TrEMBL record:
It catalyses: O-succinyl-L-homoserine + hydrogen sulfide = L-homocysteine + succinate. It comes from Zhouia amylolytica. Catalyzes the formation of L-homocysteine from O-succinyl-L-homoserine (OSHS) and hydrogen sulfide. Gene3D superfamilies: Aspartate Aminotransferase, domain 1, Type I PLP-dependent aspartate aminotransferase-like (Major domain). It comes from the Bacteria. This is O-succinylhomoserine sulfhydrylase. CDD domains: CGS_like. Its EC number is 2.5.1.-. InterPro entries: Cys/Met-Metab_PyrdxlP-dep_enz (IPR000277), O-succ-hSer_sulfhydrylase (IPR006234), PyrdxlP-dep_Trfase (IPR015424), PyrdxlP-dep_Trfase_major (IPR015421), PyrdxlP-dep_Trfase_small (IPR015422). Keywords: Amino-acid biosynthesis, Methionine biosynthesis, Pyridoxal phosphate, Transferase.
Length: 389
């Protein structure tokens, strides 16, 4: 049989039915599993037998979730984590040795950057950074001990886009492991493995759950690398809970329709802001004015749900804008059904110096909107009145 379509795998990938022939998959809320006898136990621990032993290693619900994500990303194997950051940390901790070196985009999720600057150096692992608009500098940063090339695309919060095919070529040429955080795009919009990524990471907390309910993370990719990540994780304990896996596996059934609608709404908001006289510029991957528009069109199915724009009047105007928002939420999450508005310079990134903020594309007036699933006219109405007052 030919391969199923994305939506079909998302809906139809499920565990074998139990004796009750349930239609929807039950939750296996159990910490451990029993053995028939001593021989069964020996064979299971020696991995002669593939089966569930203890839910820190594997659990039916987490396995179902992982299998689905693997199909959607075109990956060989994966492991599910309690949070996106657990997936990021475990990937680096499992794949790197003391003395190894990382080359990463400077614009990465805040906690990932803290991991690079504060924690990995404890194990003598250093990171060199390239600016998203200077990918031609990447090769000059590679050293004999460089092992991982890391990036997110689109980036948070400035919505820059990196050329995944180009990153894949560099990784291959220099024998590096290419790790891509695919959180903003989801596997529905972009599948980095197709462009040469070895490992793809998600914060499932965002669009994969998409309903602001549970935390989760996942890493999928090459079998041999996932094996290392699995062994590290089964011994250190960042596993996803069966309940969260059950929720997230259900969430994946609706990922395609949700993301499709999120993107439709986001384009309309981006076009509205593009013409607004209180706005300096809008950054949205599928607007022609986006600096990496051609790259975005090449590697993404749609532009995603995050719209960034610069409000005229800097920090003060940004703060006023947030205070005038009536319906949209001021929240640290993104990828929710509810539209979320943030102003990084006065909130999440207020501790950074102006120079450091500019390094990651956060100008004083930059506003980030995670466009939700309300009627887009109501979202535009709220943002419009907040810009005018
Ligand atoms: C939120 C986020 C993470 C971290 O995920 P958590 O589930 O919050 O731990 C990592 N990378 C990106 C791009 C994110 O947006």
């Amino acid at each position: 049989m030919s391969k199923n379509h994305f939506e079909t795998d998302a809906v139809r990938t499920q565990l074998n039915r139990s004796e009750f022939l349930e239609h929807s998959v039950p939750m296996y809320v159990t910490s451990s599993f029993v053995f028939e006898d001593a021989e069964d136990m020996r064979a299971s621990f020696s991995e002669e037998k593939q089966r569930n032993i203890y839910s820190r290693f594997t659990n039916p619900n987490t396995s179902e979730f992982v299998e689905k994500i693997c199909k959607m990303e075109g990956a060989e194997a994966g492991y599910a984590f309690a949070t996106g950051m657990a997936a990021v940390f475990s990937t680096f901790a499992a794949l790197l040795d003391s003395g190894d070196h990382i080359v990463s985009a400077r614009s990465v999720f805040g906690s990932t950057h803290t991991l690079f600057t504060k924690y990995l150096p404890k194990w003598n692992i250093e990171t060199s950074y390239f600016k998203v608009n200077e990918p031609d500098k990447i090769e000059s940063l590679i050293k004999p001990n460089t092992k991982i090339l890391f990036a997110e695309s689109p980036t948070n919060p400035a919505v820059d886009v990196l050329d995944l095919e180009y990153l894949g070529e560099i990784a291959k040429k220099h024998n590096l492991i290419l790790v891509i955080d695919n959180c903003f795009a989801t596997p529905y919009l972009q599948q980095p493995i197709e462009f040469g990524a070895d490992i793809v990471i998600h914060s499932a907390t965002k669009l994969i759950d998409g309903q602001g309910r549970v935390l989760g993370g996942v890493a999928v990719g090459r079998q041999d690398l996932i094996r290392e990540i699995y062994l590290f994780s089964r011994n250190t304990g960042p596993a996803m809970s069966p309940f969260n896996a059950w929720v997230l596996s259900k969430s994946l059934e609706t990922l395609a329709v949700r993301v499709e609608k999120h993107c439709q709404n986001a384009v309309k908001l981006a076009e509205f802001l593009d013409k607004h006289d209180k706005v300096n510029f809008v950054k949205y991957p599928f607007l022609k004015s986006h600096p990496q528009y051609e790259v975005a069109r090449k590697q993404m199915k749609l532009g995603g749900n995050i719209v960034a724009f610069e409000i005229k009047g800097g920090i003060e105007a940004g703060r006023k804008f947030l205070n005038n928002i009536k319906m949209c939420s001021l929240s640290a999450n993104l990828g929710d059904t509810r539209t979320i508005v943030t102003h990084p310079a006065s909130t999440t990134h207020s501790k950074l110096s102006e120079d450091d903020r500019m390094e990651v594309g956060i100008s004083d007036g930059l506003v980030r909107v995670s466009v939700g699933l309300e009627h887009v006219d109501d979202v535009i109405k709220d943002i419009s009145q907040a810009l005018s007052s």
